């Protein structure tokens, strides 16, 4: 018979899924160059195969987010093949990420571009992405815009806001009933003076302007230092506007380091706000948990397994908070007791319970070890090494 905390952990983990990014499996770098890993994925098929490995050993990553330009070179035509490949490797295509920041036409923006023809091109690409989502049975269209400006006075901030609202509204009209538009924000980079969707409240206003199926996407790396991210999460939950997360960690800016590698308590506090919301409302928050990191030195698949396992641990810890006691302590302003509810749960070593859960679900107790023993990395390095070396590490 599982003990009561054990049952809580089982229930939490049975319900927890986290989506992997296809772009996290290919060689990427910093703006100074790339360090090549011979085993990294070189094609969409290889990205899906590698993501399938993470799911096989952790059991909690059944879907893979894709970037249209990088994974669907022929747009909608590539969709059936990608969906079939995903199935072959035991995963499904998850969120569709339009790419309206790479083409030359987007030099001065996409939906916020002063040129109506460019705005239309961006909108058309988003509409194509929605079409792709229909083919892949994906629920979420995940929108991140690089739009902004670099010097004061060079862009009409108000007009661009209106163009964004217009473009998002037009995109929303094409959604099927079960789809969602997720609007991501980011304070700076690549634009360094103003970014059109710079924070959660701008994303919230634009999501509201877009229509009832639009929500806000919180990328944990997209905040200023010291910003209280869990408060943003609590507010979005209370407004029923939290659509999903891009998890990663950071020390300085949008560093895209491994989730919870720098500050695990941050992710725990986010999960805690969600668990408390679910406890108080009695309903499950409808949130897409996704990873958005593309670290370039650790082994890609190992890093994703590490991420999934850490996410499970922190999610389980948050489930262990004694919510009844916490609410009572909060009401009486018993500050130390209230805070201790969080600290107790965070300090609990959930790993033995998670090992038990894995055993009960037919998963390896130590996913990283099992993956290492499979020899997959060595095989991939042999098969992909030459292709990766030929691609080179330079941007020149
Ligand atoms: C951004 C943001 C988006 C990602 C792009 C490539 O910083 O996090 O989610 O798709 O990078
Ligand atoms: Mn992101
Ligand atoms: Mn980012």
Bound molecules: beta-L-rhamnopyranose, manganese (II) ion
Radius of gyration: 21 Å
Judged by helices, strands and strand pairing, the structural class is: alpha/beta
> What percentage of the residues does DSSP assign to strands (E)?
5-15%
**What is the β-strand count?**
12
Give the termini distance in whole angstroms.
Answer: 61 Å
Q: Kindly state the mean pLDDT as a whole number?
A: 96
Please give the share of residues in helix: 40-55%
Order of strands across the main sheet: 6-8-10-11-12
Notes on the structure:
This protein is α/β, with parallel strands linked by helices and 396 residues long. Helices cover 49% and strands 12% of the residues. It has helices at 4-15, 44-58, 68-71, 79-88, 116-136, 157-173, 200-210, 229-238, 264-281, 300-319, 323-331, 335-347, 351-360, 367-373, 376-391; strands at residues 20-21, 29-30, 33-34, 63-67, 92-97, 140-143, 148-149, 180-184, 194-195, 214-219, 242-247, 288-291. A five-stranded parallel β-sheet has the order 6-8-10-11-12. Strands 1-4-5 form a three-stranded parallel β-sheet. Helix 8 (229-238) links the parallel strand 10 (214-219) and strand 11 (242-247). Helix 1 packs across helix 10 (300-319) and helix 5 packs parallel to helix 6. The longest helix is centred in the first third of the chain and has 21 residues, at 116-136. 44% of the residues are buried. The model has no long low-confidence stretch (mean pLDDT 96). It binds beta-L-rhamnopyranose and manganese (II) ion (2 copies). One manganese (II) ion is lined by residues 144, 184, 219, 246, 292.
């Amino acid at each position: 018979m599982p003990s009561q905390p054990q049952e809580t952990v089982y229930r939490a983990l049975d319900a927890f899924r986290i989506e992997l990014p296809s772009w996290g499996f290919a060689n990427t770098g910093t703006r100074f160059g790339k360090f090549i890993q011979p085993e990294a994925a070189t094609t969409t098929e290889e990205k899906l195969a590698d993501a399938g490995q993470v799911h096989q050993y952790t059991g909690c990553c059944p879907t893979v987010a894709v970037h249209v330009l990088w994974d669907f070179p022929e747009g909608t035509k590539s969709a059936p093949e990608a969906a079939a490949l995903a199935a072959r490797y035991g995963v499904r295509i998850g969120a569709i990420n339009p790419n309206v920041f790479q083409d030359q036409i987007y030099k001065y923006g996409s939906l916020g571009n002063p040129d109506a023809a460019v705005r239309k091109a961006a909108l058309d690409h988003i509409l194509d992405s929605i079409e792709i989502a229909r083919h892949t049975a994906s629920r979420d269209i995940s929108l991140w815009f690089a739009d902004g400006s670099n010097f004061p006075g060079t862009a009409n901030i108000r007009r661009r806001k209106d163009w964004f609202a217009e473009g998002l509204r037009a995109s929303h009209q094409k959604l099927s009933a079960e789809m969602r538009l997720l609007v991501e924000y980011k304070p700076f980079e690549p634009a360094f003076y103003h970014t059109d969707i710079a924070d959660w409240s701008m994303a919230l206003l634009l999501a509201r302007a877009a229509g009832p199926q639009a929500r806000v996407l919180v990328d944990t790396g997209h905040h200023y230092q010291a910003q209280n991210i869990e408060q943003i999460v609590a507010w979005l939950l209370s407004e029923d506007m939290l659509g999903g997360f891009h998890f990663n960690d950071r020390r300085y800016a949008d560093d895209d380091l491994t989730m919870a590698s720098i500050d695990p308590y941050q992710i725990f506090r986010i999960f805690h706000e969600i668990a408390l919301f679910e406890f108080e409302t009695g309903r499950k928050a409808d949130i897409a948990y996704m990873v958005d990191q593309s670290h370039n030195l650790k082994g890609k698949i190992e890093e994703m397994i590490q991420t999934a396992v850490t996410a499970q641990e922190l999610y389980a810890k948050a489930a262990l908070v004694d919510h009844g006691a916490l609410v009572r302590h909060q009401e009486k302003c018993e500050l130390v007791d209230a805070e201790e509810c969080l600290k107790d749960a965070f300090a609990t070593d959930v790993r033995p319970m998670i090992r038990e859960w894995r055993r009960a679900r037919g998963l390896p107790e130590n996913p990283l070890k099992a993956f290492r023993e499979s020899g997959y990395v060595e095989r991939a390095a042999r098969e992909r090494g030459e292709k990766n070396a030929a691609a080179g590490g330079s941007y020149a």
